[in-house]
């Protein structure tokens, strides 16, 4: 735990645009930033963002400082000098590294003069070793190396279709390299290499920080074992509370939440649509699935055989009324790491969950928490039918909200945020 001294000013360093809070990572970041502002005052919180020079700057409570991301020439130099020649950092670290950026971050930190630095993942954490030591926390979020291992497992399995996993960090790479790196013959060995290199950074960087934070107990314990360090802790996301609307499920309607530009979402949905149709429609002839998220309105080819049973909705500004009309959230992920924000959002809205084990990863939930978990098409079909039963659904709904209030609500999570950031 970070030593207990008064924090006057805090700075958060990241490569992720913090606004709008339209998907999981930004929601989690928003929870940390809101807590820092609430605790220390808006004027005493700064964010350093490594991004495109023309990034849209939105009004924020905190001070935003943009450092231009590496140019293509800088990225090529960094990939050669830092991945190939040494110090053998990961590709995603090298893609956001440049000596110019190290200098600018150092100058900004000296000007801001913060008492607490929060470095967001190993991508920015690599810069911490080159600046004067202050109280600093590495927010590792989740172990990318574990996510890549599960993706490689599915790539080697009988999956009908696997989305290009370089979606994880392809936006950071030089533009001309992206078409080449999107070929399966290239990204398969590249993902294997990246998993190994990322794993090394995940194990090495905690030594530079006063505390390292992950969102998943299992991964926290794994990293503690790898490093032998006791200053690695779990920090659950702090999501805003919502007042659940009165639920009125419409038939056997379910919701799948998540953009399909995120490989685990696309892979999980493709697997479900390809393998579960006959069992699900036999159990629930009136089954209806709403696929909700940025870019989902284009659909996927695997949905063709389902006809009107699957609808691609696209982005929805306010999920409240839409989810109130659903029997449950469907979270059928087969790969991943960290914690599933969509599951926490469902619990906060009293919405039951039907999921695969990876679909509820990091939450440690079961039926007594309003979540039904199965692995095979037959199991999922049975669980969907149970969730659509009105009596069972009411029981699951009450359990979901109770779990939120006892384990994940802001008033519960805020205590651990106070320990690390106040």
Automatic annotation (TrEMBL):
<dbReference type="Pfam" id="PF13692">
    <property type="entry name" value="Glyco_trans_1_4"/>
</dbReference>
<protein>
    <recommendedName>
        <fullName>Glycosyltransferase</fullName>
    </recommendedName>
</protein>
């Amino acid at each position: 735990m970070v030593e207990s001294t008064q924090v006057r000013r805090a700075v958060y360093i990241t490569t992720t645009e913090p606004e709008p809070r339209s998907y999981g990572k930004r929601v989690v970041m928003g929870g940390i930033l809101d807590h820092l502002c609430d605790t220390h005052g808006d004027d005493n919180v700064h964010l350093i963002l490594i991004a495109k020079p023309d990034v849209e700057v939105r009004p924020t409570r905190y001070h935003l400082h943009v450092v231009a991301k590496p140019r293509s020439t800088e990225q090529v130099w960094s990939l050669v000098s830092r991945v190939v020649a040494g110090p053998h950092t990961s590709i995603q670290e090298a893609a956001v590294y440049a000596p110019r950026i190290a200098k600018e971050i150092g100058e900004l930190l000296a000007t801001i003069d913060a008492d607490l630095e929060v470095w967001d993942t190993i991508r920015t954490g690599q810069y911490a070793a080159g600046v004067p030591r202050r109280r600093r926390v590495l927010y590792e979020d989740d172990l990318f190396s574990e996510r890549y291992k599960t993706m490689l497992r599915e790539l080697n399995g009988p999956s009908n279709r696997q989305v290009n996993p370089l979606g994880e960090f392809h936006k950071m790479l030089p533009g001309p390299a992206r078409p080449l790196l999107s070929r399966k013959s290239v990204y398969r060995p590249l993902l294997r290499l990246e998993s190994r290199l990322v794993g090394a950074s995940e194990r090495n960087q905690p030594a530079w920080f006063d505390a390292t934070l992950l969102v998943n107990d299992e991964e926290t314990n794994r990293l503690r074992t790898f490093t032998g360090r006791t200053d690695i802790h779990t920090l659950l996301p702090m999501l805003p509370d919502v007042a659940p609307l009165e639920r009125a499920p419409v038939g056997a309607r379910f919701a799948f939440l998540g953009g399909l530009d995120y490989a685990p979402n696309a892979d999980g949905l493709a697997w479900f649509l390809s393998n579960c149709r006959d069992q699900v429609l036999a159990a629930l002839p009136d089954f209806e699935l709403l696929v909700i998220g940025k870019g989902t309105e284009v659909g996927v080819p695997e949905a063709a055989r389902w006809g009107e049973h699957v609808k691609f909705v696209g982005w929805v500004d306010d999920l409240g009324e839409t989810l109130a009309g659903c029997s449950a959230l469907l979270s059928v992920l087969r790969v991943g790491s960290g914690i599933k924000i969509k599951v926490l959002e469902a619990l906060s809205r009293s919405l039951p969950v039907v999921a695969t084990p990876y679909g509820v990863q990091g939450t440690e939930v079961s039926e007594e928490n309003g979540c039904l978990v199965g692995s095979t098409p037959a199991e999922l079909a049975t669980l969907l039918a149970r969730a659509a039963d009105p009596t069972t659904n009411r029981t699951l709904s009450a359990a979901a909200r109770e779990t939120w209030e006892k384990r994940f609500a802001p008033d519960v999570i805020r205590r651990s945020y106070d320990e690390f950031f106040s």
